[in-house]
């Protein structure tokens, strides 16, 4: 029966699959962490120790510094794409997203290639890589809002006697404030939970909560201490998420919104120089690491050549298998993870799409804040004893990746299902289609493009997933990010070259998958 | 099949949408549910289709109680106000949808789709995407889709709502012809008096969720049950009588005789508007302060400022209680 939105019996059954899956592979591991961390009483030494305080301090201030720098680097480009109409504008908007979707290990390898060896580890590279990733967030959110500010508001201020600087201070900035704070909050969240970048570029002296959990668990094998750190991280993320959610919700009140076509204008002659400078500088910053990554992958002892790529087929002391097998395993695991993420994510999306939107709003931020490292660590300690001794099962890896990817599927598919006109469902019902049949005949075909897009993004996320993967990957089945991590951690130009070659392969695969997915979905906004 | 709606009540979010609504349509008959927007007529249609569960009352089709039957087992056809064509399917697949749900054999589907496309005048449109059709074509496809599974009752929600006037009038005639040709029991929901009168054998007039009058179009026009009904039908000549009753004078019963030197007349024409075709709508103001609306056909009618004498055809006068 119809009669308003509701879950219905079919929806409840649909929700059973994701609830069981998430309960077993997500909630239970977190319970295992809590149990391990709090089992012998609250570990005050770890929780309140000087070491934890300094970790928390560094995690926070590097995230804060990254956010400020990202705003400084991203706002000029947001101004350019939010104000002017120029040839190649949509290309700029599309290209700026590429860094955001690249795997962290690729970007880290790019900065290692770009910076001189003695400066390639430390706080500088960490901040640079964070800016590199999150410029897209600022440009898309702030630039998008900028392009909807009615020009008349600005002209009214001019007529009332405000000069350019006062107009910026009194009109533009206050109107953009919600977008800026939303972008800043998201950037802070990403940098606070950043793992790959800090692990690969931080060097031995720099650690955040996220990397310290990994180091404590996987290198020092102190599971109890790692669990205690995870609890600290859990509380910290909860606080950051709450603040982020608050700032994002405040972002709602923008006032009058004008269509982009009415806002954008041709640049004046005097502005062209500044626009060119912004585009060139930002472009150079974003292209630098990627170009140097490509150069490093071709830079061999005997000059420019494909030696590093040829070496991918040979045995190496860094891995148990020849590196090319990491490519094959990556693709296989990502395919399996995509299948699981689609099954779980689409079932969740169908159930959620039948409920009121408010229920989803809380869940929407989850994928952005969930810590992959904690997930990997949780899986490691939850399934290491009978009856659930499945730690060595090969399929635990795609399960872990699918848990990271599934929320993105939900985020893409739910709006698509919601946008299906409910009258079409009613039309199908009156013509004799049961609710399940209508879902198959109407909803899913109409959301088909979104489904294809979701599959692509899930694949890309799984392909580049590092935080959870590094915990559960088995030595004989390495994935590309894990292999790159291993090579990067070994000295010598050969190893660095192999890492660069693998990173180039991973980058090309990711960009190809994302391009196909973008084509299918027709929208990028949903990723951010 | 016959349709019987009995004592239907619907409450949504604490508001009463329908209150004790009942009407019936004999097999093959056409009824119009007429009312202003917000009168609950669309909800009534959804109740009949099974898309809205009533709080009270029952719906019977062909003598069988279907009140608890879900929409997909009811076998009714519904023409949505904005067509609700499946955008991802072409014309043929839209029309075939209901037949497929019924697991009809392929050959039967093909034959039936061609037949229905011919009925609505869209032969050869089968492989067109529905997104490229005009408003009138979309409406025809929606009608063919609703009729294809041979529904027991066809429900039409404002079938000609958004179409332009010329198209409306053409489709109005076609609809009438299709109803009688196919022999389907039909219920049309509309706010347009002309549409209801043109299509229906019987009109169910709805106001604030209650039935205020059920009658044939002629009976409704001849004897509106209340001043509100008269005004809704477009009769503005409603007078309150001294004894508390009201008097309704249909516009065609207001006879205007041009003044002559011997009969000076008692009123002045204030407006004369040609309302499309042969019909002219007139307004007159009597010297004693009363005013009336009248109609005239043809070219020979008084114009604004002309003096006339006003008389009434007694057959066009209805006296109403209170």
Q: Can you walk me through this structure?
A:
- The complex is a heterodimer of chains A (528) and B (322).
- Chain A is mainly α and 528 residues long.
- Chain A contains 26 helices and two strands.
- In chain A, 74% of the residues lie in helices and 1% in strands.
- A two-stranded antiparallel sheet of chain A has the order 1-2.
- The longest helix of chain A is centred in the N-terminal third of the chain and has 34 residues, at 50-83.
- Chain A starts with 7 loop residues before the first helix and ends in a 7-residue tail after the last helix.
- With 322 residues, chain B is an alpha+beta fold.
- Chain B has eight helices and 18 strands.
- In chain B, a hairpin with a 5-residue loop joins strand 11 (238-240) and strand 12.
- The radius of gyration of chain B is 23 Å and the shape is globular.
- The two termini of chain B are 39 Å apart.
- The relative contact order of chain B is 0.13.
């Amino acid at each position: 029966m119809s009669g308003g939105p509701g879950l219905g019996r079919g929806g409840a059954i649909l929700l059973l699959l994701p609830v069981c899956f998430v309960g077993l592979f997500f909630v239970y591991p977190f319970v295992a962490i809590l149990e391990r961390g709090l089992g012998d009483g609250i570990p005050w030494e770890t929780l309140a120790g000087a070491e934890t305080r300094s970790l928390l301090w560094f995690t926070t201030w590097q995230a804060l510094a990254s956010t400020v720098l990202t705003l400084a680097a991203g706002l000029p480009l947001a101004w350019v794409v939010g104000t002017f109409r120029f040839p190649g504008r949509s290309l700029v908007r599309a290209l700026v997203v590429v860094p955001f979707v690249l795997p962290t290990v690729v970007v880290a390898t790019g900065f290692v290639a770009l910076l001189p060896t003695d400066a390639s580890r430390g706080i500088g590279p960490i901040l640079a890589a964070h800016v590199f990733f999150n410029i897209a967030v600022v440009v898309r959110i702030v630039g998008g809002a900028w392009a909807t500010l009615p020009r008349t508001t600005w002209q009214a201020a001019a007529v009332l006697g405000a000069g350019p600087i006062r107009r910026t201070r009194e009109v533009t900035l206050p109107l953009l404030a919600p977008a800026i704070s939303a972008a800043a909050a998201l950037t802070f969240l990403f940098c606070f939970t950043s793992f790959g970048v800090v692990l690969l570029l931080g060097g031995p002296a720099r650690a955040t909560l996220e990397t310290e959990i990994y180091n404590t668990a996987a290198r020092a094998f102190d599971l109890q201490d790692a669990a205690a750190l995870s609890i600290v991280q859990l509380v910290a993320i909860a606080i950051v998420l709450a603040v982020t959610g608050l700032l994002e919700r405040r972002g709602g009140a923008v006032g009058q919104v004008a269509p982009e076509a009415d806002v954008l204008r041709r640049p004046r002659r005097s502005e062209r120089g500044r626009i060119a400078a912004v585009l060139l500088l930002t472009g150079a910053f974003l292209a630098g690491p990627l170009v140097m990554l490509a150069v490093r992958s071709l830079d061999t002892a005997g000059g420019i050549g494909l030696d590093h790529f040829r070496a991918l087929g040979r045995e190496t002391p860094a891995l148990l298998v020849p590196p090319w097998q990491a490519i094959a395993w990556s693709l296989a695991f990502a395919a399996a993870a995509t299948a699981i993420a689609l099954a779980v994510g689409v079932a969740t999306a169908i159930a959620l799409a039948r409920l009121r939107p408010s229920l989803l709003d809380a869940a929407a931020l989850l994928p952005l804040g969930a810590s992959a490292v904690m997930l990997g660590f949780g899986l490691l300690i939850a399934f290491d004893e009978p009856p659930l001794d499945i730690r060595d099962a090969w399929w635990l890896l795609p399960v872990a990746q699918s848990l990271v990817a599934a929320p993105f599927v939900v985020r893409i598919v739910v709006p698509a299902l919601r946008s299906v006109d409910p009258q079409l469902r009613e039309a199908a019902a009156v013509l004799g289609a049961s609710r399940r049949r209508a879902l198959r005949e109407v909803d899913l075909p109409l959301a088909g493009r979104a489904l294809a897009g979701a599959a692509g993004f899930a694949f890309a996320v799984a392909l580049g997933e590092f935080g959870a993967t590094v915990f559960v990957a088995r030595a004989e089945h390495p994935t590309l990010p894990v292999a790159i991590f291993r090579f990067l951690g070994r000295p010598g130009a050969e190893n660095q070259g192999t890492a660069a070659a693998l990173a180039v392969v991973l980058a090309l695969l990711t960009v190809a998958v994302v391009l196909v997915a973008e084509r299918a979905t027709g929208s990028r906004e949903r990723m951010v | 099949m016959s349709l019987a709606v009995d004592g239907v009540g619907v409450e949504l979010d604490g508001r009463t949408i329908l209150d004790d609504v009942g009407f019936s349509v004999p097999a093959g008959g056409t009824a119009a549910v007429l009312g202003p927007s917000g009168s609950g007529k669309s909800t009534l249609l959804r109740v009949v289709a099974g898309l809205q569960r009533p709080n009270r009352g029952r719906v019977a089709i062909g003598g069988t109680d279907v009140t608890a039957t879900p929409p997909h087992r009811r076998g009714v056809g519904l023409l949505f106000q904005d067509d609700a064509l499946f955008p991802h399917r072409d014309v043929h697949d839209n029309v075939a949808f209901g037949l497929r749900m019924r697991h009809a054999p392929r050959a039967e589907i093909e034959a039936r789709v061609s037949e229905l496309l011919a009925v609505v005048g869209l032969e050869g449109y089968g492989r067109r995407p529905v997104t490229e059709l005009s408003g009138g074509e979309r409406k025809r496809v929606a009608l063919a889709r609703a009729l294809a599974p041979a529904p027991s009752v066809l429900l039409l929600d404002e079938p000609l709502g958004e179409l332009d006037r010329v198209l409306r009038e053409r489709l109005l005639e076609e609809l009438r012809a299709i109803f009688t040709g196919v022999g389907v029991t039909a219920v049309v929901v509309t706010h347009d008096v002309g549409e209801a009168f043109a299509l229906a054998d019987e009109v169910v007039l709805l106001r604030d969720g209650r039935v205020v009058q059920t009658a044939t179009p002629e009976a409704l026009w001849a004897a509106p049950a209340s001043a509100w009904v008269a005004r809704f039908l477009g009769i503005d000549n409603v007078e309150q009588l001294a004894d508390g009753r009201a008097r309704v004078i249909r516009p065609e019963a207001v006879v205007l005789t041009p003044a002559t030197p011997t009969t000076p007349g008692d009123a002045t024409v204030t407006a004369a508007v040609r309302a499309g075709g042969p019909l002219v709508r007139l307004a007159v103001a009597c010297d004693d302060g009363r005013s009336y609306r009248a109609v005239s056909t043809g070219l020979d009618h008084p114009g604004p400022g002309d003096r006339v004498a006003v008389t009434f055809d007694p057959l066009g006068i209805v006296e109403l209680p209170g």
